[in-house]
Amino acid sequence: MSKYEVNGRLYSAEAKPGQCLRTFLRDLEVFGVKKGCDAGDCGACTVWLDGKPFHSCLVPAFRGEGRKITTIEGLAQNGKLHPIQQAFHDAQAFQCGYCAAGMMMTTASAAFDEAHKADLPHALKGNICRCTGYRSIVDALHGKKNIEKDVAGKALGASLPNPFTDAILTGKAHYTMDVWMEGMLHLKVLRSPHAHARLKKIDKSKALAVPGVVAVYTWEDVPRRLYSTALHEDHLVDPDDTYMLDNVARFVGQRLVAVIGETEAAAEAGVRAVEIEYELLPTVFDPVAAMEPGAPILHEKDEVDTANGNIFATLAGEIGDIHKGFREAEVIHENTYSTSRVQHVHLETHGSIAYKGKDGRWHVRTSSQGPFAARTKLAYLMGVPAARIHVYTERVGGGFGGKQEMVSEDLPLFATMKLDGRPVKWEWTREDEFIGATTRHQMTTKIKIGAKRDGTLTALDVQVVSNTGAYGNHASETLAAAMASPFAAYRCANKKGIGRVVYTNMIPGGGFRGYGASQTTFAMECAMNELAKVLDMDPFEIRRKNVVRPGDNVESIWMEPSDASFGSHGIDQCLEIVERELKKGNGVNKPDGDDWLEGTGAALAMLECGPPTEHRSGAEMKLLPDGKYHLACGSSEMGNGITTAHKQMAASVVGVRAADIDIINADTDRTPYDTGTFASTGTVVAGKAVMITAEAMKADILDFAARFTKTPVDQCRLDNDAVICGNKRIPLTELHAEGAKVNHRFTVSRKAYLSPRTIAFNVQGVRLAVHRVTGEIRILHSVHAADIGQPINPMQCRGQLDGAVAMGYGWALVENMVHEEGHMVNPQLRNCRVPAFADTPHTDIFFADTVDAIGPLGAKSQGECGINPVAPAVSNALANATGVRFAHLPFTADRLFSGGLTRAK
Amino acid sequence: MNLNTIVDVKRPKSFEEIEWRDGHAFLGGGTWLFSEPQVSTDTLVDLERLGWPALTVTPSGLEIAATCKIVELHDFKGPPEWRAVPLFDKCIDCFLMSFKIWNAATVGGNIVMSLPAGAMISLTAALEGVCTLWPQNGTPREVPVVDFVTGMHTNVLQKGELLRQIFLPASALTKRFAMRQVSLTHFGRSAALIVATVEDNDYDFLLTITAATPRPVHIRFRKTPSAKELHQAINERLPPDAWFNDVHGSAAYKRHVTFYLAEQIRAELS
């Protein structure tokens, strides 16, 4: 046996010949070493060899022999956090926490010297964080403290740290794949090499003959039930157009055959050995072409009800009379805008482990934003009662909508059911994510907008085409969102719209932060600036003049009654803040030289807080014998900070420290039902459930205390760890003991439902410089103002906005999934970039001073909408700088060049 | 990532021990090899124990072993008359990845990978480097770096042939240089990486175009050209279809910025 020294401990172990150090360490149960890409691009797996930092996924494991290996688990010494860990703790320099180990192992290494610290854009080229926008990481490296003290009764509005901070920063927190189980099997899938093909014949025999291959499953082996991978409360909003495994491939990357092996290597070899005879079918990739008569049809009508060929859904409506509106208009702007397909790139890939428990039930450990909705689908697919299935998360490494999809749970569950309950693990690769998960829907928006000379809008006409790819998960819901708030944001008597979402042979669309509204906000907000330009009007002024206000109908193209209502209205403040800050400037000048052009731009976005469709959450709370509380809530935590917020909300109601509330979340056995953490519901639905549960808890305690002390209940109140009844103070521990004597349990449960929905706003301002020859863009000043009501945790809210804005810049400037005939050309992070440190500008973030009358404890949604105004603000700034309107995302330098940069004024 | 098809690792101490066959792959730093599945490879031949000295200064120039780590090149300080040594760092900065990769990646590995944007190809081509190749059977041969790379992921190596070293002649290392790079993302993979070197008396102006073209291109002028001469020479040498189109920049864009950057470099060196 060879000797390896890991964190000062000696191991006798033998690395497999082609094994990388990353998996070798994980095989030793050193799970702090993460996988974000497995290809050297993201840095999550950084470890030290003899003190020098390496991407352990690129290091042959045998080269670790005889060297001192240090991982995140070895950073803290004698139970004391390393200064970098303490700095990350104090600045809360993480959200989901998945990149944190790699970030710290990079920045704590001796090689990371003062020169590196002074030049973070270069020094952090090899580390990707998808959550934070890197701002809090800079804070940590500069020794900034962002956290506040946890004081009883003052939890609401305090910047408290994530309750799992220490576990995350020491590598002890267990993400989905960070477990070892006896007898674990591994699942790999064969993905379609063709964009459209029928599987005429599948020969499994060679695959089954591969040593270590346990089973091979095709469409003939799995239940043939149609479903949608999208997770929603109401499964009827998504089309049942998908089979677990199908005999027709409709996009390159569709999973076709599942192979189970004793090792990943065996499963992979099995996948390579499967022989399939394909009958190639005609393909269509462009949604407009897919709507033409004679286009290849993606789904047969007897299986999937499509209204018209490949058109999965059409949403149309009109309020007022747009012909009249355009006749009244004195100026008209008309243009077509399009947005690109992008991937979520949550740093933790999808993955699930399914097994039979000692209780005889089926357990699925997974990385999901909606474990309850996933369980419902799994029960339906497998034909077993939901009560026989337990779905849970531990730590989830990012979601952004990508995990509002049941794509990794079903095959392992099916396999374990077939294989005597042996644990079956399916861990996705980064390439799996790029070619086999979902993306933001690509949409093209044709917009025509008319106004009076004074800027009053008179008519708005929009036509949207959304490409949902091969399957319709989230297709109609994202289209509905696209047709709603971006156009409802402005008062206009005459609006008309038609949106179509179309099947093609592309990778399927899905839910993604901003959820359809991002795409049409881009079109609408660019159009508003163009209109202002024709009117020679200030872009802020035209927005102020037309934006909806309390008293206006909040309506897009439909007149149906809506449950969206202003619980508060902070858009005027947001516009004022961004305008003021841009005017004031930040002292950053454009680079010298006439070739650098400078421009400013802004855009707004409106969010109806929560989905228009069903969404519900429950919470349970109990007083514990030690006088502290236990809170259970089904909501998923994937870096959005929702568990911190829920603890703070509960703590503020019962008047204790957040630390006095112990929380469990996202577990179908141990928490009440929750539809899922998506659609901006973590605060306004699950948070509402937490709030009313905490209120019920308070009432229950006071009621018992009143009866016990024979004091009128209106003379009883909670005081941190005690209850005061009249002039008597009874510690909660004592009260609990008294309750136990009479079988009073101090447990409560409440459910929350979403209606009405309040309304939030975000405004983004950008000043940038663009080089007229090279197309290089430098963001000189980035300002964001958010109308999110009472921030439950200001630091976290700022972090959510930092991350959302950074993702907006990624969409606008960096991310570019390139497909040729349905094949993704660049399914690696080094070829399909997401913003690195150097690509992510610092953003000054401001909050409007509003307290919402509808949202729980005055709060509104905050994590989602920040992304929406960024891309149009960038386009508006580019137009301001160059005189050229760039109407098609992304704005990479070569696309600016082909899009007319050389015509710049 | 795990290379699950690998069944054996050979760790020879001398070149003579290597018995090459199909399915073998030379392992340098491993930073490319371990970044993608290598399903047609079953054996790694680790070059680490060959023990080649990383950098050797001779009166005639600098010998860079193929196994020289990037970090060793980064730390190199040449004799003061080698004025082109600062170009080492400038090119090293053009790696897509950070300083961590320098600890593992090798100069030879970057050249053998033969990406149009390979920063070590840019560096060694610009400094008129010459590769020494060791064939499996036969006598070593020498090929200029500029001719070594023949296109995206292709080069002149025969089966089992090993890149032993890159020699940078002192005559190139003593020249003045100027360099420009652009990328679609900040500090990202090069869309164009252009270098020119020139002697003090304006003689021997050598323009090296990389990343923008599928393989490195030299355009040599007896004396520093005028703007017009430079533009014309690039145009003649590289027609519109000679540029490299990929996700890191369209061909038309790369052509466009090459003219611009080349002129900047020319002006700087004039």
List keywords for this structure.
heterodimer; A: 905 residues; alpha+beta; Ubiquitin-like (UB roll); Aldehyde Oxidoreductase, domain 3; Aldehyde Oxidoreductase, domain 4; seven-stranded mixed β-sheet; five-stranded mixed β-sheet; 25 helices; 35 strands; 23% strand; B: 270 residues; Uridine Diphospho-n-acetylenolpyruvylglucosamine Reductase, domain 3; Enolase-like, domain 1; 3 domains; four-stranded antiparallel β-sheet; 14 strands; 26% helix; globular; metal-binding (chain A); AldOxase/xan_DH_MoCoBD2 (chain A); Dehydrogenase (chain A); iron (chain A); oxidoreductase activity (chain A)
Describe the structure.
The complex is a heterodimer of chains A (905) and B (270). Chain A is 27% helix and 23% strand. Chain A is of the alpha+beta class and 905 residues long. Chain A folds into four domains: 2-169, Beta-grasp domain (Ubiquitin-like (UB roll)), CATH 3.10.20; 185-281 and 350-427, Aldehyde oxidase/xanthine dehydrogenase, a/b hammerhead (Aldehyde Oxidoreductase, domain 3), CATH 3.90.1170.50; 439-611 and 757-903, 2-Layer Sandwich (Aldehyde Oxidoreductase, domain 4); 616-753, Aldehyde Oxidoreductase, domain 4 (2-Layer Sandwich). Chain A has a seven-stranded mixed β-sheet, sandwiched between helices. In chain A, strands 2-1-5-3-4 form a five-stranded mixed β-sheet. In chain A, a hairpin with a 5-residue loop joins strand 31 and strand 32. In chain A, helix 15 packs parallel to helix 17, helix 17 (517-535) runs parallel beside helix 24 and helix 20 packs parallel to helix 21 (682-709). The longest helix of chain A is centred in the C-terminal third of the chain and has 28 residues, at 682-709. Chain B folds into three domains: 8-48; 50-171, Uridine Diphospho-n-acetylenolpyruvylglucosamine Reductase, domain 3; 176-269, 2-Layer Sandwich (Enolase-like, domain 1). Chain B has a five-stranded antiparallel β-sheet with strand order 4-5-10-6-7. A four-stranded antiparallel β-sheet of chain B has the order 11-12-13-14, sandwiched between helices. Chain B has a three-stranded parallel β-sheet with strand order 1-3-2, with no helix packed on it. The model of chain B has no long low-confidence stretch (mean pLDDT 97). Chains A and B meet through strand 4, helix 5, helix 9 and helix 25 of A and helix 3 and helix 9 of B.
